[in-house]
Automatic annotation (TrEMBL):
One of its GO terms (biological process) is response to antibiotic. GO terms for cellular component: plasma membrane. It is found in: Cell membrane. Gene3D superfamilies: P-loop containing nucleotide triphosphate hydrolases. This is ABC-2 type transport system ATP-binding protein. Residues 5-232 form the ABC transporter domain. It comes from Micromonospora eburnea. Pfam families: ABC_tran, DrrA1-3_C. PANTHER family: ABC TRANSPORTER ATP-BINDING PROTEIN, ABC TRANSPORTER ATP-BINDING PROTEIN NATA. It is a peripheral membrane protein. The keyword Iron-sulfur does not apply. GO terms for molecular function: ATP binding; ATP hydrolysis activity. Belongs to the ABC transporter superfamily. Keywords: Antibiotic resistance, ATP-binding, Nucleotide-binding, Transport.
Length: 297
């Protein structure tokens, strides 16, 4: 039985507003799953349902193929949107305390805390009150707190918000390490460039509906148009008259164009070479931001 987490047909309403509609997806063991969607799309609500903070109106949650229980959730790690650490306690003291609440013995709780503070770059800050840390460093402490009990599943609501690029890399490497050890990791983010770099799988939600889910590369391939970039030395305006070519963007020697399904990219390349040197000729792979815009249209 693989250690995957499944949501199956989850619905949720607040009053008469349905904010989650038939949500189904899988967070697979050992993979980083990026959860992306615009403001109010339903990410936080979905994560709260996974952690049992909110109940679903319909549908079910499965962990390792069985219905998810309260006991299972004790072994989950959660970084909630509202964050959970106390400003007036020292960083180390409260992370150790959280480890103890999750059932660790005192020595293990202390050892895990010190290891994590070191990993997230907060060694030397453990005895400071949380409120005296910069926001980015508080965020690092929050991430350490979510990981202290060696969770079997990680659910992280915007773990990278407020982090500088170096801190993003630090947190990414800690999460990757957990994923490699077999932990399913679900994280939401508005930073699509980070998600693009980090995730193995993607779940895209809009208005409470899953619009796309699957491996990052499969999604890319599914959304790849027959689109090309061409850079020549002269002006690429002649492409306008080329059969099967629809110009998307033309800026002097650089053009981006779509090709009709029956057109031959090699013919376009030969025509370009007949006019002079070709510096770039390549299919254009959509970025996650482009896929995201596409599925939200
Ligand atoms: N406790 C609540 N009572 C009423 N409506 C709620 C409640 N919690 C969330 N909602 C509504 O549910 C919808 C989904 O909200 P949710 O916070 O899950 O979105 P999100 O994708 O996390 O958004 P963001 O990216 O802005 O954090 C929103 O329209 C929100 O206003």
């Amino acid at each position: 039985m693989t250690s995957s987490l499944r949501l199956d047909g989850v619905d949720r309403s607040f009053g008469d507003r349905q904010v989650l509609k038939n949500i189904s997806f899988e967070v697979t063991a050992g993979r980083m799953t990026g959860f992306v969607g615009g403001n109010g799309a339903g990410k936080t609500t979905t994560m709260r349902i996974i952690l049992g903070v909110l109940a679903p109106d319909a549908g079910q949650l499965l962990w390792r193929g069985s219905r998810l229980t309260r006991q299972d959730r004790r072994r989950f790690g959660y970084l909630p949107e509202e964050r959970g650490l106390y400003p007036k306690m020292t960083v180390r003291e409260q992370i150790v305390h959280l480890g103890r609440l999750h059932g660790l013995d005192p020595a293990t709780a202390r050892r895990n805390t010190d290891d994590l503070l070191d990993r997230v770059g907060l060694d030397g800050r453990g005895n400071d009150l949380l409120e005296t840390l910069s926001l980015g460093n508080q965020q690092r402490a929050q991430v350490a707190a979510a990981l202290v009990h060696d969770p079997e599943v990680l659910v992280l609501d915007e773990p990278f918000s407020g982090l500088d690029p170096m801190a993003v890399d630090t947190v990414v490497s800690v999460l990757r390490e957990r994923a490699r050890a077999g932990v399913p990791v679900l994280f939401s983010s508005h930073q699509l460039d980070v998600v693009e770099r980090l995730c193995d799988d993607l779940v895209i939600i809009a208005d409470g509906v899953i619009r796309a889910a699957g491996g990052r590369e499969e999604l890319r391939a599914a959304y790849t148009l027959p689109r090309f970039e061409l850079v020549v030395d002269g002006d690429a305006g002649w492409l306008r008259d080329e059969a099967g070519v629809t110009l998307v963007d033309l800026d002097g020697p650089r053009a981006v164009f779509d090709l009709a399904a029956d057109a031959d990219d090699q013919r376009v390349l030969r025509d370009a070479l007949a006019r002079g040197p070709v510096r770039v000729f390549r299919p254009v792979t959509p970025s996650l931001a482009e896929i995201f815009r596409e599925v939200n249209r």
